[in-house]
Amino acid sequence: MQVPIGEKKIAGWPVSGDDLKPIKNLDGRPSKRIREEGSRGYFKDAQGYWRRTDTNIDVDFDNLCAATHGHIRRSIISDVEFEIFHDRIPDWVHMAGVEPESRVTKAQFEKLIAGSASERVLHKFIYLQDVQGLLTNVQRTSAQVSQVIGEFYGILNDCAPYLYSINETVGLRSSVGAETSLLHAHLETIFVRMRSLLDYAVKISLEAERDDIDYSKIVKLKGGSRQYGDKKSLTMNERAGTLFVKDELIWTICSIRDRIVHDGHLDISARLYESFKRNRLVERFVLIPDMAEGRFEVFKNRSNFYGRDHKINHDLPRIYDDFFQRMLNTIGALHDLYALKRLR
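Structure (tokenized):
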């Protein structure tokens, strides 16, 4: 079934119309239209952002984060305090040591702190910025994952890794080149970033669960230097549906990230495979080594077995969807926890 695309819109998003085959499909063959209702594919909207044909889970996640920012603020600074003091707080409280637009050095920041009255309200605003900064980093990192996945499928569908003669477009071919290297670099970035999100989930959850904060001095983030392995310190550790259950999905992300960081690659040759039938491209795919229960299969010195034909381009959206649904559940739990801590 072919689902027609409305004029200059795909899945409700405005598009430029410049790309004759704007839908980037999982099998590496772009199309003019969404192939069938509910099928997974990627496209660029009119602003150049990658979107999915079947879900807006990234938008839902961003909306949840926006609401959570509000609850974080109201759990640290009351509405009355915010109304009175917000406009009086200097910009360096919000910007220094956080954003590149601030030219304040570490030494200058220490002097500004030392020269300021030791007031609870000032310390509250500093801590608020630091906690909200954790959630902002979650948002920015998740947005990077969404966009890099789009770039991965953009290259998979549109690249020309090798100029074949008509006699060469038969059977299964593999190619290595500049575009395939970039394709694999995007794939590796996706898993490294998702693993970083696991760390951030622990960091911000530790802040949400802490009580009796002393604002008579600068508050140090409890989760500032913590990583995913510290989730055992959380009350919500192992809570069903959150990122704190280390099952096959989480093991898969951690195993791939560790392979990339410690070995430097998933596939040292960065290969792209193309399957031809009757001189026509029927599929493009990227293989990753065999895994079982989220771990790479290893025997002695051999750790790159390819007997399972694991085509990561077909599996990546499912990994993304499962991960982000659990991100939604995790941030949703923090949203509710901070809402209960609202100051009156």
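Residues 32 and 93 are 50 Å apart (CA to CA). Confidence is low (pLDDT under 50) at residues 1-6.
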